[in-house]
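agent> Task received from the user: take the single chain below, predict its 3D structure, and emit structure tokens. No templates, no multimer pairing.
agent> Plan: (1) validate residues, (2) run structure prediction, (3) serialize to tokens, (4) report one or two observations.
agent> Step 1 OK, no nonstandard residues flagged.
tool_call: predict_structure(input=
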Amino acid sequence: MRFAALIDGTTAAAPLQARALAAFLADGLTGDGPTGDLGGETVIFVADDREAQGLVALAPTREVRLVRAAPRRPDLMAESLLTAARGGEIDLFLAPAGPWGAELITRLACRSDGAALTGVLDARLTGVPGAEPAGAPGADLAGARLQARANVYSNHMVGRFELLRRPWCAAIDASWNGGRPLSPPAHEVLPDTAASADAAPAASGDARLDPLTDVELVAEPPAGSLADSRFVVVAGYGAGGPDGVGRIARAARRMGADFGVSRPVVMNAWAPMDRLIGASGARTAPAVCLVVGASGAPALHWGIERAAFIAAINSDDHAPITRNADAVVVDDGVAVIEELAALIDPHGRVETE
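)
tool_result: status=success, residues=353
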């Protein structure tokens, strides 16, 4: 039986996450036998190799594994853990409290056919035959169960749960953030046998997207569905009306990009329904996505979150899209996208209706 404590080393929250996980491992995880005998490692997602040494020092376990990762991409981070999850190398994944941990373990559980639980106050392992040598999966865990208490109904009640399917994926409650600092163990850095999180596929199949090299500018936009597009321009309500949406669509065609819209654009009949991107429309995974005049509501974000690179052009620098984009231009979206099209279009055409 092995566990993995997961830390997002791409953000400044890593020390808090490490301290909370250390406290949970010491006081929140119990079992039929001493939990200290369980084999465990800390997986730290790292964006910059120069920070690796400092991050290793935070790990609550002796064994540490560093995985290269792009910041703010729990979807790709979950992908990098699938080999260990599906192969039975790790039976229990523990994530810190917060949106990152909840999203990561939920995605991992869904993709590996495991079970997920968030807001875990404490957990107890039953039916675990004992400690295994490090890296030696395969013990008979058929009767093993993870029983946990977790906050429910906006923390107004505490529920008792039993996770039957492995891997067990749990995000601990925020109350563990105040855990006492523990003496760090002597660390051993393990080789990263999992696929790098920033190199994992961003879409189905084996295609790997690099926003700097994987977009080919063509004379005409792609003829396939939005879900298959590699370069997408998305127009939002901030386009100002059908004229603005039309100008963005023409600019997209000049750049050889496919064109999509947010739900408010469709609801106002400024664009046809087959151009909708989001929870009610297409889910895309392009190398580059340019979002023009859209606030970035959760429904739209679901449709573009798998893009390798997102650039937002918006006159509101406080719009939600600015927190999820890799690059932000604060200006009139229609004017900026038309200027960009003029720079990209080698023929300098001005397209009209």
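agent> Step 4: summary for the user.
The longest strand covers residues 115-126.
agent> Done.
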